[in-house]
Amino acid sequence: xxxxxxxxxxxxxxxxxxxxxxxxxxxxxxxxxxxxxxxxxxxxxxxxxxxxxxxxxxxxxxxxxxxxxxxxxxxxxxxxxxxxxxxxxxxxxxxxxxxxxxxxxxxxxxxxxxxxxxxxxxxxxxxxxxxxxxxxxxxxxxxxxxxxxxxxxxxxxxxxxxxxxxxxxxxxxxxxxxxxxxxxxx
Length: 186
Prior knowledge:
Distance between the termini: 39 Å
Radius of gyration: 17 Å
Number of helices: 7
Order of helices and strands: HHHHHHH
Helix content: over 70%
Structural class: mainly alpha
């Protein structure tokens, strides 16, 4: 039987994931009326996107703690795979934020970055966030955490498809050339 915390975490993670997937789908289908990236990077849209993203991560963590090692995976697997994914993911995310800036991470237009981490992947921050979620799912070995982590990974994998038309519009031929030389993910 699920506890109230598990039920609340599942609902929060599911609703946040649905909101973001809906926003991305809307932006893909109706690029002229896109939600993400925002036409104008207002504080309201930034707050909604960040709250939904943080809600997915928080729900995954809460479910992992509440249902710790329900799969009974061996500690060397959980700690040997989960912790490195979490640490490397965090390192890459923060390197990406410092490289492109917090404003650009939040959907503001700035200079197109194509070197460093962005020379290997057009979306290193999303890839790193996926690694963090996967790492926590493995470390916690919780079935419920894995479900919400998978929702988060799907959301993060979908985000570039909403962003790419905007990036092409914002950066033109430079972005098109970049996409021909650099993979979307890895």
